[in-house]
Amino acid sequence: MENGAFKGVKSINKNAKNIFDEIAPSWYGFRHHTIFRTELEELARRWQRGKLLNIGCAHGPDFLPFKDNFELYGVDFSTEMLKLAPKYAQKFDFKVNLAQANMRYLPFSDERFDWAISVATYHHIKGEDKRLKAFQELKRVLKPGGEAFITVWNRCQPRFWFKGKEVMVPWKTKDQTLYRYYYLFTYAELENLVKEAGLEVLKSFPESGYRFPIKVFSRNICLLVRRSTSPPSPH
User: Fold this and answer.
1) Which H/E stretch holds residue 152?
2) Rounded distance, CA 154 to CA 222, Å?
3) 85: how many CB neighbours lie within 10 A of its CB?
4) What is the spatial distance between Cα 89 and Cα 110, in angstroms, rounded to a whole number?
């Protein structure tokens, strides 16, 4: 853990769900539209239609590129985030099926979804075994041949050069500062973990706004992955 990360933090005893519940009202205004519009619109054109699951959906801004031709499902562990999702869906005129759930235990049957997205979610999971379990759950609910788009923060972005793999990132409300846990991935680490979970990496790339030729320093790591249509090879 980053040295000194917890010094003077009054909210450190709150669990992750409590923190995101308290963040929810201000997050609704701060992230009213997806910051991955270019990537998600491209995927909506690629995928065209089908059942789409948004893992860590919050109030739902990442649904917008898919609102016309897809059957939408969203999960989040924050009660307050999900309370804001119907309001957001009504504002932008789309229907969505919502469930409160931990991403390591998705409340859906095997091979339920054609597609999935998860924007800035998996980096909030503490513990390597738990991160692997979450990606295994993603594979489980995808149909064979189904694809998923994943983003996490990149450890190698300049702001984290002198910090550890695990950091606490502040979020200020009117009366307190809340700290969110982040596990910072590298490109290679994330790619290896999703492969260990049984997913194929189709593409590994930075966010569309990144303008430098070497992807390693991008703010975000974006992956397009697929559940293979082939049975696993025997050991």
Assistant:
1) strand 142-153
2) 9
3) 22
4) 27
